[in-house]
Amino acid sequence: MLRCMLRTKIHMATVTESNLAYEGSITIDEDILKAAGILPFEQVMISNMNNGERFETYVITGKKGSGEICLNGPTARKGVVGDKVIIFCYSYLEDGRAQTLTPTIIKLDSQNRMK
């Protein structure tokens, strides 16, 4: 049996940009993506702490060291600059592996620097 499990969480990221004129996605600083083990174009779920929105999209790699968290395209309607978001990435795992999984949790400060 496969179980859908939380693999990685980026906790309390601050939205730095909202770009409606893009085709759609979320841009995340390359350093944060590497620490989280999230690949470009991988699916993520985002929860906005400010307005309760919860949505799925895919990841685009942002400039390394920039602290960038940018909502692009239609997702730009789900939040504004300054909003706090939690970014979740899930994986399907066999039951035995699922029982031993320890998710990676990346905590960010208000400038999107890893704590």
* Percent in helix: 10-25%
* Structural class based on helices, strands and sheet pairing: mainly beta
CATH structural class = Mainly Beta
Question: How would you sum up the global shape?
Answer: globular
As a percent range, the share of strand residues is over 45%
Q: Please name the CATH topology.
A: Barwin-like endoglucanases
Biggest pleated sheet: 8 strands, mixed
* Rounded mean pLDDT score: 96
Distance between the termini: 36 Å
Number of domains: 1
Topology:
Blueprint (H helix, E strand, L loop, with lengths): L1 E13 L2 E3 L5 E5 H7 L6 E6 L5 E9 L6 E4 L11 E11 H6 L3 E4 L8
Parallel strand pairs: 1-8, 2-6, 3-5
Antiparallel strand pairs: 1-7, 3-6, 4-5, 4-7
Would you kindly provide a written description of the structure presented here, covering whatever features stand out?
The chain is mainly beta and 115 residues long. The protein has a single domain, classed as Barwin-like endoglucanases. The chain is 11% helix and 48% strand. It contains 2 helices and 8 strands, in the order βββαββββαβ. It has helices spanning 30-36, 95-100, and strands at 2-14, 17-19, 25-29, 43-48, 54-62, 69-72, 84-94, 104-107. The chain has an 8-stranded mixed β-sheet with strand order 2-6-3-5-4-7-1-8. The longest helix has 7 residues, at 30-36. The protein starts with a strand and ends in an 8-residue tail after the last strand. The model has no long low-confidence stretch (mean pLDDT 96).
